[in-house]
Amino acid sequence: MKQLKKKLEFTPFPGTLNLQITSKTALEGLRDSTKGIKIEPPKGFHSGRCFKAVLLGEVQGAVVLPDVPSYPSDVLEILAPINLREKFNLKDGMELSVTIWLE
Q1: Nearest residue to 51 (alpha-carbon basis) of 32, 25, 72, 23
Q2: What dihedral angle (degrees, nearest 10) is formed by the CA atoms of 15, 85, 95, 48?
Q3: Model-level pTM greater than 0.85?
Q4: Domain 2-100: which CATH class?
Q5: Regions of the chain where pLDDT drops below 50
Q6: Measured between alpha carbons, how far apart are the two ends of the chain, in Å?
């Protein structure tokens, strides 16, 4: 959590919002990118990369790509400083927009 706070410049809300991506091409481009913010967790946790993002044009957050071989290829985990489900009254199956910076 300390590493995420330092590298992303916000304290993530406990838990992530998982998005199922319908555009496989967009997700492949993100996964193939050599950029992103490297996360090196303590022993027993998985590493990964984060990309800064804006959710629904309003909330600064980050997309997390865990380095887990069995992780679903069509899912993005979203970190934010707030509970996104509550803030936007999100329900399963809703469509969302996410702008991701490939830095």
Answers
A1: 32
A2: -10
A3: no
A4: mainly beta
A5: none
A6: 21
